[in-house]
């Protein structure tokens, strides 16, 4: 059984805040839920399936379902780090296809700028061998970038083009945290954080959140909104295989991407717009290679000279400014990747960055740290004419 | 520059022998009796074949840098995080000790150089498996 056309995204909402000291995280979840349901023309009473990850406040979805006052018959708190919400779209489609629910609500919210957020989970079997090392996201992604440079000759200037492209898009987003256009020079002369990644190779840290509404095709046709269908989905995890399979130049997207494209029956060259999880510039470069937009090792050449900038480049990406310049709520950029893909497919992106006739998009992401062990999720979305 | 605190490991039944070995200056990895392959970090079940017949193996403690990143910000910076691929096969996540961190490079030969963790911040806790460039 295929997920092709099994479900549609009819509601998407990105919370406008990037700093929320006077709000609570459940309140942010609720405002995101309300926003996405209003976008769909639905209400909380229509929801019969609820999806959140384990960062949601309280005891899994139990606390949030009660807080939101939902009456649901299907719940899923699948956890795969920041790409979880891309995966949730596919899992919602699975549940809908099996008749387990018909209106699925997915929410994410968090306030890492306003309160301390627990980043490490106690009890992981690898903790004793890794936590003392100082393996932050910065050093983990730094080692990926260093190895990619070593094997393929990728340069800091090539990585910088990814930030430059994101900043060109962010200037048109009134909510973007970093709306200023930057140059390659700005990126490579910004302070080094973890070699070879500079400050401007890193994403923003933001409070905020987002929500999505996924429904059956039958319900989608009754709503007065453009219908965005799920064509294909893939997920994967990757580990170092006991240390014998360590390869920091390939992400789990090398498996999730082809799975999604195969199910959708399309190829990367068919894609008009790409939402690519951008926790760091190297994250984008590796996913572009792993999804097949270019050959492994060719990512540096692919992103150079503005090739990701909407209107001039071959592959417009992250036209909201992405995690690099716009928003990375709760360190979890998966949901904003889906939201901007929906905007593009509906023709509702900022006019300056809207891709003409955008009918096919990919949203892909990495969960956990790109380094040794992580997950990836990819979905292909199509606007129904 | 702030001093970096290295939290003392909390050994458990799966890992006690590893930490005991390191205190004696030996890096112990696991080898599998059934599939003959090694692994790191050490665990009860072989991650390659699922066998529970895994044994401790004393590594020579030498290898080469697979990748590294020098952390420039925050507590204890700068310090070098690296993956070292041991001559026995497995890659080990570690820190590198060097007079000049900028002298370190991918492909460089390294050897084990255990460093004490902080027991009650006294710096005399159980040893951690750091590496240093051969020749330094
Ligand atoms: Zn085995």
Automatic annotation (TrEMBL), chain A:
<dbReference type="InterPro" id="IPR016039">
    <property type="entry name" value="Thiolase-like"/>
</dbReference>
<protein>
    <submittedName>
        <fullName>Acetyl-CoA acetyltransferase</fullName>
    </submittedName>
</protein>
<dbReference type="GO" id="GO:0003988">
    <property type="term" value="F:acetyl-CoA C-acyltransferase activity"/>
</dbReference>
<dbReference type="InterPro" id="IPR055140">
    <property type="entry name" value="Thiolase_C_2"/>
</dbReference>
<dbReference type="Pfam" id="PF22691">
    <property type="entry name" value="Thiolase_C_1"/>
</dbReference>
<keyword id="KW-0808">Transferase</keyword>
<dbReference type="InterPro" id="IPR002155">
    <property type="entry name" value="Thiolase"/>
</dbReference>
<feature type="domain" description="Thiolase C-terminal">
    <location>
        <begin position="247"/>
        <end position="382"/>
    </location>
</feature>
TrEMBL record, chain B:
<dbReference type="InterPro" id="IPR052513">
    <property type="entry name" value="Thioester_dehydratase-like"/>
</dbReference>
<dbReference type="InterPro" id="IPR002878">
    <property type="entry name" value="ChsH2_C"/>
</dbReference>
<feature type="domain" description="ChsH2 rubredoxin-like zinc ribbon">
    <location>
        <begin position="19"/>
        <end position="53"/>
    </location>
</feature>
<feature type="domain" description="ChsH2 C-terminal OB-fold">
    <location>
        <begin position="56"/>
        <end position="112"/>
    </location>
</feature>
<dbReference type="InterPro" id="IPR022002">
    <property type="entry name" value="ChsH2_Znr"/>
</dbReference>
<dbReference type="Pfam" id="PF12172">
    <property type="entry name" value="zf-ChsH2"/>
</dbReference>
<protein>
    <recommendedName>
        <fullName>DNA-binding protein</fullName>
    </recommendedName>
</protein>
<dbReference type="InterPro" id="IPR012340">
    <property type="entry name" value="NA-bd_OB-fold"/>
</dbReference>
<dbReference type="Pfam" id="PF01796">
    <property type="entry name" value="OB_ChsH2_C"/>
</dbReference>
